[in-house]
Amino acid sequence: MPLLAFETSCDETSAAVVHQNRILSNVVSSQIRLHAQYGGVVPELAAREHLRNLLPVARTALERAGIGAHALEAISATQGPGLPSALMVGLKAAQALAFRLRRPFVGIHHHEAHLYSPWINGDPPAADFENFQANVSLIVSGGHTMLVHVAKDFRLRLLGSTLDDAAGECFDKVGKLMGLPYPAGPSIDRLAEGGDPKAFDFPRPLLQEPDHNFSFSGLKTSVRYFLRDHPDLTGDRHKLRDLCASVQAAIVDVLVGKTIRAACQAAVRCVTASGGVACNRSLRVQLAQACKDQNFCLRLAEPSLCTDNAAMIGILAEQKLKRRSHATSLDSDILPGWRLDQPVHSA
Ligand code: KG4
Ligand code: ZN
Q: Whose CA is nearest to atom 20 of ligand 1?
């Protein structure tokens, strides 16, 4: 069933066509440059940009997939969580199209979609659900950091999440303190390459705690104090590289350590990771090494599918239609605060 999916939960306007677990097209229009001048995402501007971009992006997705709107058999969109006004654009457009074409509509939980993106690979990219196995999944981005146990039958259990800042938020805020442009994660990744990760010692928050929660705001504060005490450091290119490498090492140690511990406790043999921060090269290398040491299989989302995209929404929507064979109501509303462990009727 060719299915058209929309994703507009934050600052990427995306539309994708999927068919039988294959991605036929995945168009992403990023608003990063617009929001960079404000140092973060401005919700009202994001919603306006989605309104402006969604139709051209959807048209391009259909063209690249080589199908007309009437060939679509279902429509899907992110229903939550996310920025309310941004979610509204994608959800209402998808419901209107489903109404017009008399096709089923499927509302998708954004984080649940991230969970399956590591299973999408190949050229053309397809979801490898035949080899799907129980796993512990790390979702790590600018808005969320969480560990989820995903059973073989796709049932989910939220193991832990961040108590304050997400890991990507920490990269971005620390980068801002260093004078790097928003979003700072990719710049820190690049600068860290030539730096010494042991040059400066930063805390590894909650790494030794037995639960699966995260906390990154204390790390950000310790970098703030460090820069207050070393005001000239960012002017020295070598020291800036050392600082980036040291901060990155602290974040990556926590993410890897807690993910591996959760996987051991959940008695799974597989670990997966997705979300914008899963593009981080040090995280990918360290997680691969730790999984090798523990004999876990590791599935990392392709970098292009780590960040927000409609293809992951479509892949999950198709599965939901196959497995449940019923759709979401066309009257259903956005669910900005929808928790992964919360059933849709009480969200
Ligand atoms: O998934 P995403 O595009 O959007 C949401 O936050 O939902 O993730 C964006 C986040 C930003 O905080 C950005 O700094 C971070 O992912 N990020 C990275 C890297 N690439 C993106 N952080 C560290 N290293 C990277 N290579
Ligand atoms: Zn996301």
A: 186
